[in-house]
Design goal:
heterodimer, A: 139 residues, alpha/beta, Hypothetical Protein Ychn, Chain: A, 5-stranded parallel β-sheet, 6 helices, globular, B: 73 residues, alpha+beta, Translation Initiation Factor IF3, 4 strands
Chain lengths: 139, 73
């Protein structure tokens, strides 16, 4: 394994979660390790049935903008977030869930897709992952 | 020694790269993975991944917007 990517997924916006997964999957595909640390609004996307539910970060227009973008993405052959998540998991990517966000927002383990989450942790784990990473991003 | 075919026609970023990696992970040493697709950037980027993975790029061909990349594990 040549290098590692660690990404803080802070945003729960659909387009930003796409960016996180695309970068992470690209890294895994090129032989790197990848860890995604989901916190705040990002963590909402790991709730059961919520992965595709994020709004568009700009011009969401009560969902109309998102609908238009999703339609264009489908036409372009873009993968769903679910597929990207499954590929990420299959290629050995690690998903970390922020436990403070869970406390603040009243999210329980059983609300989350526990089978895909490697660890429930805090900043220490992020730093531990990031200190050996060649790429680290905040999305 | 097997030849594994991966069809990524019509797929876009990052799927051709990811599907190539998935096939290479499953392949045994010496197997050939042949990826076909239409996403323009992947034609450049799959060879980058092959290099990063330390594998052998055998051939890259393109005809009418359709490319074919052969890799040996």
């Amino acid at each position: 394994m040549a290098g590692k990517v660690t990404i803080i997924v802070h945003s729960g916006d659909m387009d930003k979660v796409y960016s996180a997964f695309i970068v992470a999957n690209g890294a895994l595909a090129m032989g790197m390790e990848a860890s995604l640390f989901f916190t705040f609004w990002g963590l909402q996307r790991l709730k059961k049935g919520e992965l595709e539910k994020g709004p568009l970060s700009k011009m969401n227009m009560l969902g109309l903008g998102k609908w238009m973008v999703k339609r264009r993405m489908k036409k372009a052959g873009a993968a769903s977030l679910e597929r990207l998540l499954q590929d990420f998991h299959e290629l050995g990517g690690k998903i970390l869930a922020c436990d403070m966000t869970m406390q603040i927002m009243g999210i329980k383990k059983e609300d989350l897709r526990d089978d895909l989450i490697s660890d429930y942790c805090a900043v220490g784990t992020y730093i531990d992952e990031a200190k050996d990473s060649t790429i680290t991003l905040f999305i | 020694m097997a030849e594994i075919k991966v069809d990524c026609t019509g797929e876009t970023c990052p799927i051709p790269l990811v599907e190539t990696r998935k096939a290479l992970r499953k392949a045994k040493e010496g197997d050939i993975v042949e990826v076909t697709g239409t996403h323009p950037a992947s034609k450049k980027e799959i060879p980058m991944a092959v290099k990063a993975l330390g594998l052998e790029l055998i051939d890259v061909q393109e005809e009418g917007g359709m490319w074919k990349i052969k890799i040996r594990k």
